[in-house]
Automatic annotation (TrEMBL):
Keyword line: Disulfide bond, Signal
Any one Gene Ontology BP term: cell surface receptor signaling pathway
Recorded GO CC terms: external side of plasma membrane
PANTHER family: FC RECEPTOR-LIKE PROTEIN 4, IMMUNOGLOBULIN FC RECEPTOR
Stored Gene3D superfamilies: Immunoglobulins (2.60.40.10)
Protein's name according to its UniProt entry: Ig-like domain-containing protein
Every Ig-like domain range: 25-102, 198-281, 288-373
Domain of life: Eukaryota
A GO MF term: transmembrane signaling receptor activity
Length: 424
């Protein structure tokens, strides 16, 4: 129950100043029993004031002492005159956690608000009516933390989760009702997380040129108003963003160089609490290669035997560096690389289906095949492709060597009889 008491009083200084009701971790409003001075357990000789806060009017407050109904005549606030364990109840939000008021000979007090890692916790060992107290020892579990000859307080800072446990104090008391070695009742201290371990979220494979947003998620403790948290972002161990209050790292347009192992770190404004996320692997993918086109010079892929042929390849979409390879046939051997393929003196064996293949490391695309036809010189003169090899009794007409009147038929058919000496 002592741990619950600490949670109830977590917001005490804020509530006392701002006058608002805290929310439970689930978001539902609860009844809070506030204690002033803000220590637990409270001690009777401090003139302790209890205030019941929640949903409902002051006149509707019902008080309980040591588990029994104690009446409604006090309203929602009163000064304690008897030791015991108190609770209050409001119709709208129910019964509060208990608050203890002690009248023991020796009492160990801790702050009444919830303790978060990174906070400072003061332990106060107090004798009855603040009578003489010397040689004070403080303990957590069975381990002695500190021995003070004349002092009555010790502090732990910054608090860590392992500081949770049962605390007590022991000292020499010299009061008007008792003297000698006395030991306090133990009190349970629970140190809550200021914020949990952060989780880094974002797309693991963004496309080159697209925006990238990485979010460092760590919800602050609901036990107090949200603290100021600072966020830092790392890639491969190097700081790339922060410190900043925003939990997001924004990259307007990513490149391949932005690939790497990312992590984030969250720490409290004073730096007392620091926590790091696990790594997130981000691999920037290039824009896929699309729309591969192929064309030839001369146009159409028809070229005369022995002439010069240039094939060119381009892509409509895709980020680089791009690699180009040239092939002939379905699974042709590699003919060349680069966006252009040049054949300086084409031969009969250079005819066929040509295509280019383009890749960027992440994707590969191919062009539609282009048919390359190697033509003889006579085809260029006549514009007609012979259907077969000419018979032996026909001679080839060569207009370049004879007058048009002698070889006029060559303009209409590829082969024709020629009288001896006609092309002299």
């Amino acid at each position: 129950m002592a741990g619950d008491t600490g949670k109830v009083a977590l917001l005490l200084p804020v509530l006392a100043l701002a006058g608002w009701c805290p929310l439970s971790p689930t978001g539902a409003q609860t009844t809070q029993l506030l204690v002033e001075p803000p220590w637990r357990p409270a001690v009777l000789w401090d003139q302790v004031t209890l205030t019941c806060q929640g949903s409902g009017t002051a006149s509707a407050t019902t008080w309980y002492k040591d588990g029994r109904r104690w009446g409604q005549e006090f309203g929602n606030k009163f000064v304690v005159s008897e030791s015991g364990t108190y609770m209050c109840d409001l119709p709208g939000t129910g019964r509060s956690p208990p608050v203890k008021v002690s009248d023991d000979l020796l009492v160990l007090q801790v702050p009444a608000w919830a303790l978060l890692n990174g906070d400072r916790m003061t332990l106060r060992c107090r004798s009855w009516q603040d009578s003489s107290l010397t040689w004070v020892s403080f303990y957590r579990e069975e381990k002695e933390l500190q021995l003070l000859r004349d002092g009555k307080e010790m502090s732990l800072s910054p608090l860590q989760l392992h500081h949770s446990g049962r605390y007590r104090c022991r000292g020499w008391v010299d009061s008007e009702i008792s003297w000698g070695w006395k030991e306090s009742a133990p009190i349970t201290v629970t140190v809550h997380e200021l914020f949990p371990m952060p989780v880094l979220e974002g797309p693991p494979e963004p496309t080159e040129g697209s925006p990238l947003t990485l979010s460092c998620l760590s919800t602050p403790s609901p036990l107090q108003p949200p603290p100021t948290l600072l966020h830092l972002f790392y890639r491969d161990g190097q700081l790339v963003g922060g410190p900043q209050r925003s939990p997001q790292l924004l990259v307007p347009a990513v490149g391949v160089s932005h690939s790497g192992n990312y992590s984030c770190q969250v720490h409290s404004e004073g730096g007392a609490v620091q926590k790091s996320s696990a790594q997130l692997r981000v691999t920037v993918r290039r824009v896929p290669v699309l729309g591969v086109s192929l064309w030839a010079q001369p146009p159409g892929g028809q070229v005369a035997l022995g002439d010069h042929l240039v094939l060119s390849c381009a892509v409509a979409v895709g980020t680089g560096p791009l690699s180009f390879t040239w092939h002939r046939g379905d699974l042709g051997a590699l003919l060349g690389t680069g966006p252009h393929l040049e054949l300086h003196h084409v031969g009969d064996n250079d005819s066929g289906q040509y295509h280019c293949r383009v890749g960027n490391g992440d994707s590969v695309a191919e062009s539609v095949p282009l048919n390359v036809t190697v033509l003889g010189k006579w085809v260029l003169w006549t514009g007609v492709t012979p259907p077969m090899t000419p018979p032996s009794h026909l001679a080839r007409c060569q207009p370049c060597l004879c007058p048009h009147s002698a070889c006029g038929q060559c303009h209409h058919q590829p082969w024709s009889p020629v009288t001896p000496g006609a092309c002299r």
